[in-house]
């Protein structure tokens, strides 16, 4: 949806924020469908949750730096697109 949204904003000569706002509902429905698919497949295969002691701490995950490579570019793009109203036009 990302590249198509930029193309749509360019062709229609409208702000990207308007296109992104219109895509919120389909994105939420997609995530819900994906969650349901994984949930029911796990139920069918009788998969269980891991113990809490086997899970890494959230602080350790964020401090390692792997999470930063995902979240920093996302926040920069959102800041540029929404706060300063950069467009693809």
Structural features, described:
This is Tripartite ATP-independent transporter, DctM component. Residues 1-84 form the TRAP C4-dicarboxylate transport system permease DctM subunit domain. The chain crosses the membrane at residues 16-40, 61-86. By secondary structure, the protein is mainly α. It has one domain (2-83). Helix content is 72%, strand content 0%. The protein is built from five helices and no strands. Helix 1 packs across helix 2. The protein starts with a helix and ends in a 6-residue tail after the last helix.
Could you write a compact summary of the structure shown?
The chain is mostly helical and 89 residues long.
Distance between the termini: 17 Å
Helix count? Answer: 5
The best one-word shape is flat
Please tell me the overall pLDDT: 85
| Structural class label | mainly alpha
Characterize the largest beta sheet: strand count, sense, and whether it forms a barrel: none
Give the SSE order as H and E letters: HHHHH
- Beta content comes to under 5%
**Helicity level:** over 70%
Q: State Rg.
A: 18 Å
Tell me the number of strands: 0
Work out the count of structural domains. 1
Runs in which pLDDT lies below 50 for 5 or more consecutive residues are none
């Amino acid at each position: 949806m990302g590249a198509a949204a930029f193309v749509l904003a360019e062709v229609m000569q409208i702000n990207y924020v308007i296109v992104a706002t219109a895509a919120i509902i389909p994105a939420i429905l997609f995530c819900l469908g994906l969650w349901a698919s994984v949930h029911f497949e796990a139920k069918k295969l009788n998969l269980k949750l891991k113990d809490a002691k086997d899970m890494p701490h959230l602080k350790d995950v964020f401090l390692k730096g792997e999470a930063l490579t995902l979240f920093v570019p996302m926040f920069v793009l959102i800041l540029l697109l929404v706060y300063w109203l950069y467009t693809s036009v």
